Amino acid sequence: MAKGHKNETVAYLIKEKEGKQRYITNKPNHPEDATYNIQRRNARRLTGLEEINVDWQDHLIDKETTVTTTFYNTFSIEELREVDND
């Protein structure tokens, strides 16, 4: 029987509320320092602990949840040899 381990990672993506809803690609110290990109894959993933300075009235937050399941199987060398012979 395979033993599984599930890992969940949460990230936050900040995007414009109006217009093309471009995503922030950096951690701006001032609202005018923010850089944007239309593609979600280029967005800066934030953990929620970073300090960024944007005008929050003009932005929305996307929550991205990634779930990874890892399975482990244990075999003896004899079992592996049987598979190799098949």
Based on secondary structure, the structural category is mainly beta
Strand tally is 4
Taking all residues together, what is the mean pLDDT? 91
How much of the sequence lies in strands comes to: 35-45%
Net shape:
rod-shaped
User: Order of strands in the sheet with the most strands?
Assistant: 1-4
Q: What's the helical proportion of residues?
A: 10-25%
Give keywords:
86 residues, two-stranded antiparallel ribbon, 4 strands, mainly beta, 1 helix
Topology, element by element:
Elements: E1 3-16, E2 23-24, E3 36-37, E4 59-72, H1 77-85
Antiparallel strand pairs: 1-4, 2-3
Describe the protein.
This protein is mainly β. The chain has 1 helix and 4 strands; from the N terminus they run ββββα. The protein has one helix spanning 77-85; strands spanning 3-16, 23-24, 36-37, 59-72. The strands form 2 sheets. Strands 1-4 form a two-stranded antiparallel ribbon. Strands 2-3 form a two-stranded antiparallel ribbon. It starts with a strand and ends with a helix. This is DUF2483 family protein. It comes from Staphylococcus equorum. Pfam families: DUF2483. InterPro entries: DUF2483 (IPR018918).
